[in-house]
Here is the input.
Amino acid sequence: MTQFTRRNFIKAAGGAAVAAGAAGFPMVSFGASKKVVVVGGGMGGAAAAKYIRMMDSSIEVTVIEANKHYYTCFMSNEVIHGRRSIDSIRFGYTGLAGHGVKVVHDIVTGIDANKQTVMTKGGHHFKYDRCIVAPGVDFKWEKIEGYDAKVAEDIPHAWKAGSQTVTLRKQIESMKDGGVVAICPPPNPFRCPPGPYERTSLIAAYLKKNKPKSKIVVLDPKPKFSKMGLFTAAWEKYYGYKSSDSMIDWQGTPKGSDDNVLKSVDAKTRTVTTGFNELKADVLNIIPAQKAGKIAFAAGLTKGDWCPVHHNTFESTIHKNIHVIGDAAIQSPLPKSGYAANSEAKVTAAAVVALLNGKDAPTPSWVNTCYSFVHPGDGISVAMVYNLVDGKVSKVKGSGGLTPGYAKSTMEMRAREEQYALSWFKNITHDTFG
Amino acid sequence: MKYRTIVQAMLALSGVALGAAANAATPSGEMLGNTCAGCHGTDGISTGPAIPTIGGLSNDYLVDAMMEYKTGERGSTIMTRIAKGYTDDEIKAMSKFFSGKPYVGNKQKVSAKMAKTGAKLHKKYCEKCHEDGGTSAEDDAGVLAGQWRPYLQYTMEDFHSGARTMPKKMKKKMKAMMDKHGAKGEQALLDYYAGQE
Here is the structure.
């Protein structure tokens, strides 16, 4: 049976008939028929659901999420360092329920864009007027011989926080002094661009204090990375970087070369083979190349590895009435960060609410703020304001940028940045799940 | 949108070039304000421990603060970088949005003895501008009661270092307070503010 959504009804009946509708078709309940289904309850999905309800409580919002809890990727490096508990980055869905969001724990297996229906593994069908897909990232396991989801339980990527975060922490904790930690960051684009380098910094901070003879080798398939100048300045300050006794050995890869591109891993001996060399590690952290989450492919929302969207509404350019937000979307120059996902969620929420009420989507605005810890007591950041120019997300000229370099920024200011980062964590998680 | 198009057309005719960024209408205060919530909390209510609550502050205070960040007159770690991303109209719109929200203070654990001393010092040196024990937004001087203590501390450090300039009246009163009661007096004041709702 065709569902009588308010929007379809307006389309079918035309404006004049709608005016008569209230009197002429008393059986049709407009208010109850506006349905939004959100696929994925991470940083993007949860924030979108909450903000739609805050903006228009007449809209029925259902979040379908596989897990009972979400572990934030941000701050998970603090768990690996050891100064934060895994429980402190775990968030449930009672806050969303408090906003009247229906939360269903199930796995979405498909989306029928024509029938406007989301299907789940549990055998349920959810009708929607608009759907928001926020599946995050999936891994390109096939790029690394000998590495898959099963191997990753022992040689963790820890790039989706949770049990693997704890595994990596335990491995570093039980490593002997003088051991080698090898970190293999992914090629661009990937979730949380400064993340592997914050991880390097915080593991170094732990080792420096507890196992000072140990080394960290970073086999990077890229020639440079996010906040590179600030990270390397901090590594010089704290970990002897560039000296003969450096705790951190970052090995980049020049453009066009495959020097530190990971080819294969021998799980038994924890040996990785790159285009140039072989390295045996005591603790191995492999972060594979990434693509949009599985459901984005199943629903036909992808072009290449990611999902193309209209930037004013984040509606898919492939399927109408489906919006894709967060890491899975092609949102550049917005980065694949938690803050960007939160910002995209609110722009999308406002667009969805306006469109469901027969209005134009409002003019969008986005912000990204991203903090990293380089050492306990020392934080750095990057920020940017974005607007819509010619239909595309665009950096506002003159805005944003990095913490001033180590020669220009004082320790006091960077200590404040650490405190602001801790506040940011509390506020963004409350803004999303609270 | 339409208004903009007409204005653009008129300006084009009159030979005034309009920047590319002007091809969309100014975002609403709500749209702009929501981007701030990632750091400052939903509706500008910060859950702490250091980022200040901005919801419920006065419109004038918020506009002034953002304009000072934008021009660099007021120093900061990150706000000077972010404020440069907004037009004056956008700053007005977001300030109006946050000033329309309720102020929700956060009562923090402080030394009761210090707070008591602080209350007395407040009455003598600060109450004239920061009315009603620092709880009023209407005086445009910034709400202090229930604001996060590390932020209050940073603010005072910035005033002393010159990263932020004290208004004339405040400078005079603060000098008198510091001369007589010193750094401990200042800490007592902060305890008084942070210890309120």
Remarks:
- The domain at 110-193 of chain B is CATH 1.10.760.10 (Cytochrome Bc1 Complex; Chain D, domain 2).
- Confidence is low (pLDDT under 50) at residues 1-5, 7-22 of chain B.
- The radius of gyration of chain B is 19 Å.
